[in-house]
């Protein structure tokens, strides 16, 4: 029984996305990673950087994004609050939805949990976003969407041709 629990916990990871499309984007993301690690959150793996057009407004500056696999004792609600506090430390204020930002941190998946209260898990639009799916696939080629039950390969194949060709690994 113990071995089964350990194996399940290895499969059920916590994945977060970090993005930036203002200022020195790579430095912003690296600073966010450092600040996350200062909050008792262990970074287990980091994807490559991916550059993509701003979504949904392609006229905004391009985004740089990564996905991290982390380990933490924080529950999803506390984790979300930590990330919102970190975003405020980067100067995030109330702005139009999807406006350019120095740092954006999202919980993509928290141990395959499904939640719809203070935090929505998995992230409600992650299955349609190339800047989440490509780096997540890099970290876990066997990941399955907890709600849709779709394998990440199928989610990638369901992206439009322009979504597939507009992103590049850096």
How many strand units? Answer: 8
Averaged pLDDT: 91
- The CATH topology: Alpha-Beta Plaits
Residue stretches low in confidence (pLDDT < 50, at least 5 long) are 4-10
- Following the backbone from N to C, one meets helices and strands in this order, namely HEHEEEHEEEHHHE
What is the radius of gyration? 16 Å
Q: What structural class do you assign from the helix and strand content?
A: alpha+beta
What's the helix count? 6
CATH top-level class = Alpha Beta
Strand content: 15-25%
Largest sheet: 6 strands, antiparallel
Shape: globular
Q: How much helical structure, as a percent, in the residues? A: 25-40%
CATH architecture: 2-Layer Sandwich
List the domain count as a whole number: 1
Write up this protein.
With 170 residues, the protein is α+β, with helices and mostly antiparallel strands. The protein has a single domain (12-169), classed as 7,8-Dihydro-6-hydroxymethylpterin-pyrophosphokinase HPPK (Alpha-Beta Plaits, 2-Layer Sandwich), CATH 3.30.70.560. The protein contains 6 helices and 8 strands. Residues 4-10 have low confidence and may be disordered.
Could you provide a short overview of the structure?
The protein is α+β, with helices and mostly antiparallel strands and 170 residues long. It contains 6 helices and 8 strands; from the N terminus they run H-E-H-E-E-E-H-E-E-E-H-H-H-E. It has helices spanning 2-11, 25-37, 76-89, 130-139, 152-157, 161-165, and strands at 14-20, 42-46, 50-52, 63-71, 104-110, 115-116, 120-121, 168-169.
């Amino acid at each position: 029984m113990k071995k089964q629990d350990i194996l399940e916990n290895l499969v059920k990871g916590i994945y977060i996305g970090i993005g930036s499309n203002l200022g020195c984007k790579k430095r912003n993301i690296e600073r966010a990673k450092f600040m996350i690690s200062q909050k008792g959150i262990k970074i287990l793996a980091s994807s490559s950087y991916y550059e993509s057009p701003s979504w949904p407004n392609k006229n905004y500056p391009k985004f740089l994004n990564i996905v991290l696999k982390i380990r933490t004792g924080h529950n999803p609600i506390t984790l979300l609050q930590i990330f919102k506090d970190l975003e405020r430390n980067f100067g995030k204020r109330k702005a139009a939805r999807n406006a350019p930002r120095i740092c954006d941190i999202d919980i993509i998946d928290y141990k395959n949990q499904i939640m719809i209260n203070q935090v929505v898990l998995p992230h409600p639009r992650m299955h349609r976003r190339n800047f989440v799916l490509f780096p997540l696939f890099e970290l876990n080629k066997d990941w399955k969407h907890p709600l849709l039950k779709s394998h990440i390969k199928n989610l990638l194949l369901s992206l439009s041709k322009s979504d597939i060709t507009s992103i590049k690994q850096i």
